[in-house]
Each structure stands twice: as C-alpha cells, then as structure tokens.
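Work package 3, deliverable 3.1, input record:
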Amino acid sequence: MHIDWNAFTPGTALAGGIMIGLAAVLFARVAGRIAGISGIVGGLMRPRAHDIGWRVAFIAGLVGVPLAWRLSGRAWPFELDASGATLVVAGLLVGWGTRLGSGCTSGHGVCGLARRSPRSLAATLVFMAGGFATVLVVRHAWP
Amino acid sequence: MAMTRRERFGELAASLGAGLLFGAGLLVSGMANPAKVLGFLDLFGAWDPSLALVMAGAVGVGLVGFAFAPGRARSALGLPMRMPTTKSVDRPLLAGAAIFGVGWGLAGFCPGPALVALATGSPRAILFVAAMLAGMALFEVFAGRRPGARMPP
C-alpha cells in the first residue's frame, strides 16, 4: 500500500462529508427519519399509502442538485470504467445486498455510526471489507 | 395516524431540503466519481484516502447532532421519530452487507452516488441504476416478506 497524494482531496472530502452529516441530522431532527438512500428508494418497491411523497421529495433533491449543475453547463470528475456486464452484476448485488442488510453507506455508514448502533458498525465493517477485498481481487489478483 | 396538512407539507419540505444538501455533499465530496471511490477501496494499490475524510466529516457531525436530545419521541415538526429499533447483529445484516460490499467494489457505486450519476446522462450509469432497482425489486418479490429482513420505516 502507498498513498496516492495526487488524488488525495482532503478539503473537499471533509467539506462534502460535513454537508452529508448535516443533511442526515437535519432529516432526523425535522422529519424524524433516517437518511438512508437504499431504504428510501427500496421502500418505493412496495409502496404504502402516505409513504411515497417524502421518498420522492428526498430523491428529487438528491438528483436535483447534480442535474441543475449539469444543466448550468458544468461538470464534475466522473470516470466509470466498468464494463456493461460488470455494472449489471454490481447493480444487482448492491440492490439486493443493501435491502437484505437493511442499509448502505448512508444508512449504516453515516447515520448508523453516528447513532452508535452496533448493528450498523458491524454492517459497515463488513461492506468495507467486501469492497476492499473485491478491488484487491479485481485489480491485483485477477489472472 | 393521520397527519395534519402542516405536518405533511413540513415532511415534504424537510425531505426535499435534506435531499438537496445530501446531493450537494456527495458532489462536493468526490463520491460522485466511481473511479475515486475505487481509488479509496484499492487499499493495496495507489490508495486515495479521501473517502475516509468524507466519512469522518459526516459521522463527526452526525455524532454531535444525534447525541443531542436522543430520547425525544417527536421531531421538530411534531412527527414521530422513526429510528431503527432492531438491535441484533444477525445473518441477513451481515450477508447483505457482504453482498453489497462486493457490488460496491465491482463498480465503485453505492446507492446515493449512483442516483447522483444519473445526472451525467451516462448510459452506463443508467444501466447500473436500473440493475440496482431490479435487485431491490427482486428482493421484495423473493425475500421482502420474511420477518427480520425489512428495512425499518
């Protein structure tokens, strides 16, 4: 392991993280809910009465900022190298896994850790280990 | 449990506002770039530690924000606090997290940044999101009714 200092962006990473944390706290304090993206999206798969609008509003906000950014003629660094087949497999795993595991990077990794939930700590350690191991195999151990 | 019109409007506005701030945070943080996420997950190659700072910033703010008045039964709008109540570290939690981790490492996308990436118009980002939604729908069809496997509301 060696650190890629050229790719390291501590200022924007910390600033973006603080914004994400503020969003999660605001959502919990004002709306009484967990800002977990997989839960918010996944809950639309079996829609219940009076449980749709807030989910759509959150997702609209989440996608609205990048969309407005793009429509104003700007872009952000975006590189997606995976093949189509890899993306399909990865998407199925992310969709199924986050629902089975009751959360993703936001629900467990941000909100759950901030709430000091042992469940979320366990989930976060496991999905981080899974991500590290997968990249290790794909980049360094694939024949 | 009927909500008043004020509560319903407040819930929608708070959800939109939190979504906006969350989306902006993902953009600023760099997590909206799958290559950067993979650079963080590449612990044994040229490692980009940036995402550790994203997590530190988000969890740090969250620890302070969630610690304040934890036992409150109602939100600032008077809505019920719907925090997860499950306590046990069980097999679905760990298996799901492992499956998610593998998918995250394959593409560099977790659910939030994948939705943000839709705004690029990239057909392959759209393909990933379609597969992710299919994975969620398949889970609902085949496993969603099993007790203990439901996302708390």
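The longest strand of chain A covers residues 2-3.
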